[in-house]
């Protein structure tokens, strides 16, 4: 891919949500490979492309963000699928029910539909649905669930094509996709073109307040260009003829929010929950340099503590593996410099990642069945957002004396 060498600015001069120029660089993490660019074993000796990962915060809206460093076309073959975690099945079934009720028989369009898990539930509830996703390999998986996918990046032109063929969408949803978008204003323009006049736009993303509070620096990677505050979405909506009218707090992914928007002409007043969560962001100091500076200090302390813990365990002759090969885990491993000298291997339920090496530090990835075979003394849980599910699945491992290490919000061995 020639475009891998394309140079782009490594820092933002203006916030991509609210256009403020009050950008504060608080955690420069050096060069990282794309967090989902897994390596084939036969390519282990080849140098991966890497790009600066400079974590900035907008001091007007509180959005954490990195510059768009990912080459064009990167998401046309994608390796993350939500269906690997049982937690997400129940979550997306609940979301599908909400969207079907909002649609009242109209078209539900899910942008970044991935393998079609959520729309599959919506279809079984009698919904009229369409997915939009650039990853052709995932569209094939979605088709197996009976989900129709328009394979394309979402742009205003895409919106026009879809509306011409399928009519306006009564509900447009996007879950953990908006944070992958570099041109948020262009994306919202597309939403406005495709959405019915009285329709709903529903966004799910991790909540920046919780990212800040629990040191989730690993949620930042090149593909995750933005970690959003509610205020950033309020201001983005205002810039693009929309308005935030409601929000629901969700515990998934370490704390997320489901944000409901409508066109400003039909929006009405925001709910009390919108007002409450905005006040929570103000209380957390999401417009203060000092707040983000303190987070960066905590991250450095976390890294030192985790490396020291792993080094001590290895010096005692203990075997350590990692559970999960998520993008967030790859940020953590690369920034903290944790590789095969500390972790014998990783395991991941996603078959698309098994047999590969993790980006950057190149730790081999296996099916979780190797845990029962090799019986590692410790498992570093990189997919910490699914720890409850992982612990339940590995109850026999724990009963036999195996132990878990959680890296966030501060490293600890789970007792």
CATH architecture of the domain at 290-413: 3-Layer(aba) Sandwich
Describe the biggest sheet? Answer: 7 strands, mixed
Sequence of strands across the biggest β-sheet: 6-5-4-7-8-11-10
Rounded Rg? 21 Å
Q: How many DSSP H or I helices?
A: 13
How would you name the CATH homologous superfamily of the domain at 290-413?
NAD(P)-binding Rossmann-like Domain
CATH class of the domain at 290-413: Alpha Beta
N-to-C series of helices and strands: EEEHEHEHEHEHEHEHEEHHEHEEHEHHEE
Q: N- to C-terminal separation?
A: 47 Å
* Count of beta strands: 17
Averaging pLDDT over every residue, what do you get? 93
Instruction: Indicate the structural class.
Output: alpha/beta
Low-confidence stretches: 1-5
For this structure, the CATH topology of the domain at 290-413 is Rossmann fold
Shape, please? globular
Helix share bin: 25-40%
Strand content: 15-25%
Give structural notes.
The protein has 415 residues and is of the alpha/beta class. The chain has a domain at 290-413: Rossmann fold, CATH 3.40.50. The protein has helices at residues 86-103, 117-124, 136-144, 156-166, 184-194, 208-213, 230-239, 272-284, 289-315, 327-336, 370-374, 387-393, 395-399, and strands spanning 23-32, 51-58, 64-65, 107-111, 128-133, 149-151, 169-175, 195-206, 226-227, 242-250, 256-263, 320-323, 346-347, 365-366, 378-381, 403-406, 412-413. It has a 7-stranded mixed beta sheet with strand order 6-5-4-7-8-11-10, with helices on both faces. A 6-stranded mixed beta sheet has the order 14-13-12-15-16-17, with helices on both faces. A 4-stranded antiparallel beta sheet has the order 1-2-3-9, covered by helices on one side. The longest helix has 27 residues, at 289-315. 50% of the residues are buried. The model is unreliable at 1-5 (pLDDT under 50).
